[in-house]
Amino acid sequence: MKLYYAPDTCSLSPHIVLRELGLEFELVKVDNRSKRTADGRDFLTINPKGYVAALELDDGKILTEGPAIVQYLADLEPESGLAPGAGTWERVRLQEWLNFITSEIHAGSALLFNSSLPEEVKSLYREKLFRRFNFLEEQLKGKTCLMGAAFSVADAYLYTVLGWCKFFAIDLNNWPGLSAYMDRIHARPAVQAALRAEACD
After folding, report:
1. I need a labelling partner for 75 at 20 to 30 A (CA). Which of 28, 61, 95, 169 fits?
2. CB of 53 closer than 8 Å to CB of 5
3. What's the pLDDT tens digit per position in 179-197?
4. Alpha helices in the chain (DSSP H)
């Protein structure tokens, strides 16, 4: 398999999952501005949406969208426990978390990268984001990970998008439980390996 990625983007999430699973894969870096891959291809021919992550399977099929990719990968190795079995109530809960992270944390923070937005607009987005952080702080009480004691693909995704707070001068120490959660996930060997490989640690 090939994972098309760019540093400091949401492609870190499937990258972490690939390493957690111990699967063989090749990393292919993408220049988000030029839309060229490190091996000289036009990334738009791989993913016409123009953004990472994209996973190329051994048979040449391309899968995009991080939450879909991480569930696909987890299902390749169901004994890993990174995703509950399809059709179970726990799997629905995992999908609920993935949708929350996508719509509220990922989309909510990605807007802050837009340098053309006036500060008063960014302030409104930050206030909404902080309400979501308050919710996460409550949800993590008494838990090691989002789904309870065990690490899941939802944790790889949440860790990835919360990592962008450093670009927005948002101090996660204002949410002690969330900050401690980030430290726990950061310490995982697969996370460290992914960060080293992307040279963004």
Report:
1. 28
2. yes
3. 999 999 999 999 999 999 9
4. 12-21, 66-76, 89-100, 107-110, 119-139, 153-162, 176-186, 189-198
Span between the terminal Cα atoms of the chain, in Å: 24
* Amino acid 201: pLDDT: 39
Q: In Å, what is the CA distance from 44 to each residue of 26, 80, 82, 107?
A: 19, 33, 30, 22
In tens, the pLDDT along 55-105 reads 999 999 999 999 999 999 999 999 999 999 999 999 999 999 999 999 999
Could you tell me if 5 and 12 are in contact, meaning their C-beta atoms sit under 8 angstroms apart?
yes
Residue among 114, 110, 109, 115 nearest 172 (CA):
109
